[in-house]
Amino acid sequence: MPERAAPRVVIAPQSFKGSVDAVAVAAAIARGVHRAWPDAETVELPLADGGEGTVRALVRATGGELRRARVHDPLLRELDAEWGILGDRTTAVVEMAAASGLPLLKESERDARITSTRGTGELILAAAASGAHRIVIGIGGSATNDGGAGMARAFGYRFLDRNGDDLPEGGTALARLWRIDGQTDPRLVRPAIDAACDVTNPLLGPEGASAVFGPQKGATPEIVRELDAALTRYADVVERFVGRNVRDVPGAGAAGGLGAGLLAFLDARLISGAKLVLDAVGFERRLAGASLVITGEGRIDRQSLYGKLTQAVTLAARARGVPVVAVAGSLGEGHEAMRDIGVEHIEWLACRRWVQRSPRSARRAWSSCASPKPPRSRPRTGWVTATTRGRMKPLSRRCGARWTRSRLTPRS
Question: Given CB 3.0 to 4.6 Å as the disulfide criterion, which of 30, 187, 233, 369 pairs with 375?
Fold first, then answer.
């Protein structure tokens, strides 16, 4: 059968965390596509899930503008943080990781007892001052566990102890919270606030902010108990003085309880980060006329099925009959289930140049799909990636591998 005409390929990956950002991944795949299909049309659409890289991804995808604001980091040191205006000129996008993120701290500085979200509040104020009608907030990658109290301080709220004195910043100080004074900054009354939130953890308890995410921020089991007790007190006082019960709301525990703070002080909507991002970049519209979608992330495993961006991209593409190929830095337990939702082929990579080479097998996968019928939801026999003698093996030390038709083998 003669090979079909060169396709229109939509390239929509996330970053490979700790290695390559989404823009670089998309560019590398695009170079590979043009080597495999010199006449192919490519649409580069780097994406993010609400964490680090969300601002740049959305600004780039919509033709928006990056801006900077002077804010405070989790330990209240000044820094310049990015935020953005999207192409519609009415939507601002902020990511808490830029001001209150874990990567801003050295490992020895990570202490969820004292870190603050004040800088996130300052970023939100900068976005509101621009006149935006809507503010999108990505709340992944936090270094904090203060329930958004630091953010609210930036808006003008005061958190007082029994004696009427201001509490210090940080999570554990909230155990002494007695009263909240103040009201929302007038600049925040107009814009609608949407928070990209892909977790459903409540604020408190064994599945709450402190227990689940605290250890990533340097919290020992004893500190986790202190933080959870402090957030329990915080939830009580918030309900009494703000009139909002944030204890059991799904997503309230996101980003060290920032989800709860956004609900209480900004009346924000907590919505799927994947849906929010795809809607913001007009993903459905960009699928028009597409022959193939290439997506991917640093690691594909069972978690990729639970509201993650790779899943959302796949489902949206398959709903329009567009085949999907995924590129991953590594594979974990349960990655096979991605094929059940419509991924035709998963290419397992080891380093940046393999990202660029991956479209070779993507082309074979696409060419094997029967036209005009949409491709089968499971890959064809033989589409096994990075196998050696039938076993999956990590490739981190095998960047010198060469590509054969059915497997990756070490260069002799």
Answer: 369
First-to-last CA distance in the chain? 35
Angle between helices 273-280 and 309-319 (to 10 degrees): 50
- The DSSP symbol for 290 reads -
Q: For position 86, which CATH number holds? A: 3.90.1510.10
Contact 359, 294 (CB under 8 A): yes
Would you say 111 and 145 are in contact if contact means Cβ atoms under 8 Å apart? no
Give residue 56's identity as a one-letter amino acid code: R
Q: Confirm if 54 and 95 have CB atoms less than 8 A apart.
A: yes
Cis ω on the peptide bond leading into residue 221 (within 30° of 0)? no
Final residue belonging to a domain, choices 274, 296, 313: 274
Q: Over the stretch 216-268, which tens digit does the pLDDT of each residue have?
A: 898 999 999 999 999 999 999 999 999 999 998 999 999 999 999 999 999 99
Strands (DSSP E) along 240-370, which ranges? 269-271, 292-300, 324-331, 343-348
